[in-house]
Amino acid sequence: MKYHIEKNSVQETLVIPLYGRKLCTEIFPDLFQDGKAVELIDRLDYDFSELEQKSESTAHRFGALEVAMRETDLMCELKDYLVKHPEATLVNLGCGLDQTCENADNGRCRIVNFDMPDVIAARNELLPETERIRNIAGDLNDISWFDGIDDTNGVCFMAAGVFYYFKKDEIKKLFSAMERRFRGGRLVFDTANERAVKIMLKTWVKEAGITSIKDYFSVRDAETDLAYLTNTTISSRGYMLGYNDLKDPSVPGMFRLLAKIGDSFMKMQIVKLDFGM
pTM of the entire structure? Predict the structure, then answer.
């Protein structure tokens, strides 16, 4: 029996990035493969006709490429951490129905998927826990969730498309607390400068009645903007071209140009925080 997703519901927000991963698997197969996303789409009772229609547009196809690059970049950093910490815990913050940690699984690590209660309720139905995979509900701003993370053998956190919706002071408190608690751990996430965040959050900001975006988290220069993390090694790479030059024949030249603009003018980037011991 398929899992029903209502239109205009909170759970509907889980469908769009999932469909993006499925679309990218189809149109850029040499760059990205997420068979789990394709399988999950088939298990949902949801009217995909609008998304299918939009999928023919250039904007949505480039958006799918963005999704693919972000997931690939983050998975690269997860796998890199597992090289030295093969039994570490991988934690997907704001996981939705994303399975990046599962795709990076080396067969020895442990995985924690973390999100708000209504999201975890859907995940438990569609992607139930296993011996090495746990689904935890909570609020990122309530750091009591730290107690549910076993970092005995190391821990690597990832967040995809999550921190844009938080204010700068909230992120500063979260990152500072993580630096103190998870020594030797790693956090990797995507971010962009204020101009890009304003564009990305335009609709959400309007619906929420927010008049200014300046208080929301954005990063222009990671080492400068996150300098309050005094016991952390901070590094960043371009979101679109930092891990892959996108010279694959399936990628239109215009998309490579847009990718360059995104990395340079919008400062779309993957930031890596390696917390000191």
Answer: 0.93
> Which residues, 6+ apart, have CB-to-CB distance to 226 below 8 Å?
175, 219, 232, 234, 271, 273
Instruction: Give 208's contacts (C-beta < 8 A, 6+ positions apart).
Output: none
Reading the block at residue 125, the tokens are 């139905």
CA-nearest of 97, 69, 99 to 269 is 69
- pLDDT-derived band at 261, boundaries 50, 70, 90: very high
Residue at 229 is within a domain: yes
d(CA 221, CA 213): 18
3-state secondary structure at position 1? coil
What are the structure tokens assigned to 130, written together?
């296993």
Q: Which two tokens stand for residue 234?
A: 């901070």
Q: How many domains does the chain have?
A: 1
How far is C-alpha 115 from the geometric centre of its chain's CA atoms? Answer: 12
Domain of 140: which CATH number?
3.40.50.150
Structural domain boundaries, residue 264:
81-275
Q: Is 34 helix (H, G, I), strand (E, B) or coil?
A: coil
Give the pLDDT band (50/70/90) at residue 210. low
Taking the C-alpha atoms of residue 205 and residue 213, their distance in angstroms, rounded to an integer, is: 8
Residue 204 pLDDT > 60, yes or no?
Answer: no
What share of the chain in percent tops pLDDT 70?
A: 95
Helix-helix angle 253-264:58-84, to 10 degrees: 60
Higher-confidence residue: 200 or 149? 149
